[in-house]
Design a protein that fits this description.
It is a single chain. The chain is of the alpha/beta class. The protein has one domain (about 5-130, about 160-230): Spore Coat Polysaccharide Biosynthesis Protein SpsA, Chain A (Alpha-Beta Complex), CATH 3.90.550.10. Helices cover about 35% and strands about 25% of the residues. It is built from 7 helices and 11 strands. It has helices at about 30-40, 60-65, 85-90, 115-125, 165-180, 185-190, 215-230; strands spanning about 5-10, 25, 30, 45-55, 75-80, 100-105, 130-135, 140-145, 145-150, 155-165, 200. The strands form 3 sheets. Strands 5-4-1-6-10-7-11 form a 7-stranded mixed sheet, with helices on both faces. The chain has a two-stranded antiparallel sheet with strand order 2-3. β8 (about 140-145) and β9 form a beta hairpin. The relative contact order is 0.17.
């Protein structure tokens, strides 16, 4: 069985959340980041969970991990100025014997553990994998306010997290970015930079990222809908 170290990126500034910290915002009374940690806690393939957060949030996240019984929680590190820096800070704490690195947005609380498990399998086979869903809308490329192209929608996907990689390949990508002064917003780009072809693992549209206050209401509606389905309503 693969040994997976999970890095949860939770260092965002929440600028679009109108002053609310999206990691600590409550969904049905439970912090967003608690949902994210619990999704990985359930998986036997996961051996440790490391978070990267702002200095002022580290204590609160450690308390949340204790309160919600995250036994695989291995600590919280201080985030950097960018997402990539934050992930690299956490990467330094990863266990030596782990085989796969999974990077997840702390603000994606509704990720399905079964999709995570399939993404782990795909990453073990292909070297790198990321959850993704097909684009629903027609996408336009534009310049100066005018359409320049309409890409074929059937070839477009929305990538989500987790994004999972064989440890050596991910370290190769991180080292390459560091040597060339590159800063990526997407972990797949790190692996792509050293020639890794990323497999897209089927996900669903419920795996939303909490970015604005409206997203909290959407997430709560998704949870309510899922509960009704589970009850056979």
């Amino acid at each position: 069985m693969e040994s997976v170290s999970v890095i949860i990126a939770a260092g965002g500034s929440s600028q679009r959340m109108e002053g609310v910290n999206k990691q600590l915002a409550l969904l049905r009374g439970i912090p967003v980041i608690a949902y994210s940690m619990m999704a990985f806690e359930k998986l036997e393939e996961v051996h440790e969970i490391i978070t990267a957060a702002r200095a002022e949030d580290m204590g609160a996240i450690e308390d949340i991990a204790r309160k919600y019984g995250i036994s695989k929680f291995a600590g919280c590190v201080r985030g950097g100025m960018t997402r990539q820096e934050s992930v690299v800070n956490a990467l330094r704490e990863v266990s030596r014997d782990t085989s796969l690195i999974a990077v997840h947005d702390g603000a994606r609380p509704l990720v399905n553990p079964e999709f995570i498990r399939q993404c782990i399998r795909d990453a073990a086979i292909f070297g790198g994998a990321a959850l993704a869903v097909p684009v629903k809308d027609t996408i336009k490329q534009a310049e100066g306010g005018f359409v320049t192209d309409t890409p074929d929608r059937s070839r477009l996907f929305i990538t989500q997290t987790p994004q999972i990689f064989k440890k050596k390949l991910y370290f190769d990508g991180v080292n390459f970015a560091g040597e060339h002064g590159l800063d990526f917003t997407d972990d797949c780009q790190l692996a792509e930079a050293v020639g890794v072809k990323i497999h897209l693992t089927h996900s669903d549209y419920r795996n939303i990222k909490i970015t604005t206050p409206e997203d909290i209401a959407v997430a709560e509606a998704i949870i309510s809908f899922s509960d009704r389905k589970d009850d056979g309503v």
